Amino acid sequence: MLYAILCYHDEDVVMSWTKEEDDAVLAKRHKVQQELVDKGRMGPALRLLPTSAATTIRNSGDEQLVLDGPFAETKEQLLGFYVVDCESLEEVIDFAKRMKEGENTCTFEIRPMSIFQTGNLSGKETLAS
Amino acid sequence: MTELAWIENALTGARPQAVAALLRYFRDLDRAEEAFQEACLRAMKSWPVNGPPRDPAAWLIFVGRNATLDHLRRDSRNTALPDEERISDLEDVEADMAERLDDAHYRDDILRLMFVCCHPDLPATQQVALALRIVSGLSVREIASAFLVNEKAMEQRITRAKRRVSQANIPFAAPDAAERATRLGAVAAMLYLVFNEGYSASGGADMVRASLCEEAIRLARLLLRLFPAEPEIMGLLALMLLQHARSKARVDAEGNAVLLDDQDRNLWNRSQIDEGLALVEKALRHRAPGVYQVQAAIAALHARAAKPEDTDWEEIDLLYQMLERLQPSPVITLNRSVAISKMNGAQSALDLIAPLAERLSGYFYYHGVRGAYLSELGRAGEAREAFGRAIALARTPAEAAHIRQHLDKLSKKNSA
């Protein structure tokens, strides 16, 4: 079963992390991911740029409005997500809990998912290319 | 992350919002800061036991405000002391506060807090010091080491700046659209000063200086989240990100400055570049050019070039022309001359900057750039003279060392 693990956190707090703290968090999570990597069941991990880089399209009646900023002003923001292939909800909860270890102020949301289209990106694309 | 580290990060993240709201409440900078300090002390006691609050800023504002009111009451010996328990369970109050804070006026709180530091009577360095102290909450010692002055001198500088600000009438009424735009402009300029304080000079406490750049970026992000549709704030943040992305490549192992052309572009920070490029794109959609956006667009063209020879100098030249129109200055023409030299050769560049001689005679970069063009044209004697002037005007050892590299190259070329 495929699951997305959505990572929510207060952006103001994450932006106050030093590079070292940020690296340490990712390294700690990475260690836990290794077991799924070994089993060939670790999907992509995506980091979203800050919400200040976001653009939102919504309709006002028939007119499409292009607005600066994220969809909703919320206390915590969606900052990134992981895709994993796990046997059961129990397994993914256990996995997510261990990834989150020590991160008292962030919240993970687990959402079962299905792949709708696999797409054809190589994973090496950047904005500058 | 240790428990203490996450609490500290939560406090740092919440600080601008909390101090800004406390300033609106008490209308006094010192009192607002004290209230925040008090709230932080209580957070250190309460959060490890009760867990982090859902909304740290709301918690700090509420606790800081109440604690300060208690002190005031205690001082005036009026009423019985309220017990600590009353504020230990904040569940409902917090939700209530958070709701009110999501109101538009907390945007204006933070803008006001930053604007307070931009008083036009304050010289640039004092604006920067005050912002780092009040908005960012850096210690006087940290600020002093960033400015390479002793702690006592910095303490006095900040005290003087605060006095100046408190004598001015801080406007507390909600600003109208025109006033808000004025404040945003002043705050943007102040944040860029903070950034440049970290960016321009090197040597000394490099780590502290890099953290000034990061602090300016953090505050610009905060400002942009509050005012998401302001293209100049997008431009400012993009400009800082794109410049800061090169920081690892700008200095070699010996601590010497490395020119853009000679930088190892693999050392550029990819994620900062991506964010900067995304913001430039967003800003340009508004079709309301401004000085930060144009400078960011120039930085973006450098960032997009995988190799120096891929740089789109024609576009850069056009952007500098636009910048000259927006903000006429001989320094911008000097910068444009670099694009001209790449396209049409050093002689054209020299012709372009010749009329600037008088106005820029005291400017380090003018003589440095001019020396480089002369040396390219093989006019070694004149080049040496220009470099000599540049060294005399250098403000840091790194600047002087950089010009000496040019002189070394010149001697090698002549002896070869």
Can you put this structure into words, describing what you see?
The complex is a heterodimer of chains A (129) and B (416). Chain A is an alpha+beta fold. Chain A has a domain of 79 residues: 2-Layer Sandwich (Alpha-Beta Plaits), CATH 3.30.70. Chain A is built from 3 helices and 6 strands. Chain A has a 4-stranded antiparallel β-sheet with strand order 2-5-1-6. In chain A, strands 3-4 form a two-stranded antiparallel ribbon. In chain A, helix 2 packs antiparallel against helix 3. Chain B has 416 residues and is mostly helical. In chain B, 71% of the residues lie in helices and 0% in strands. About 2% of the residues of chain B have low confidence. The chains are: A alpha+beta (129), B mainly alpha (416). At the A-B interface, helix 1, helix 2 and strand 4 of A face helix 1, helix 10 and helix 12 of B.
